[in-house]
Design brief:
It is globular and about 30 Å long. It is built from six helices and two strands, in the order ααβααβαα. The protein starts with 17 loop residues before the first helix and ends in a 7-residue tail after the last helix. Helix 5 (about 95-110) packs antiparallel against helix 6. It has a domain at about 45-125. It is mainly alpha-helical. It has a two-stranded antiparallel ribbon with strand order 1-2. Bound molecules: zinc ion. Zinc ion (ZN) binds near residues 50 and 98.
Amino acid sequence: MKVPTYRPHEEAGYSLDLQARKALYKTRDWYRTKARSKRKHGGKPRCMVCGKLANTFDHLVGHDDDQAVRVASALGIVALERWRDRFFEGPFVWLCQTHHSSKTRAEMDGKLLDWLRDYRSSGGAS
Ligand SMILES: [Zn+2]
């Protein structure tokens, strides 16, 4: 599978298709970003919701650009408007399997903001 080159200057006024999104997760920059955050959390990041050991490094405001902008603005946090730009910039959170699944479901239902309001702890994004 061919891994596309990340070009920050590239205009992407549309959502990337699923294949292109998956490819971003295989880039060296992604592994680096994830590893850096893991170190910041002492090598053992905890789920922001339940505090259990986390295994998923997650994009806080999600994949969908419209929803991401709405969520970020409602929560008063900074998030770039385009998925491709947010991908390596975050904001990120660590989640356990259970909470990553429930967050993903909420995101797909367009209810990410509700989910975050219910579950966001004082920890916030990192
Ligand atoms: Zn959890």
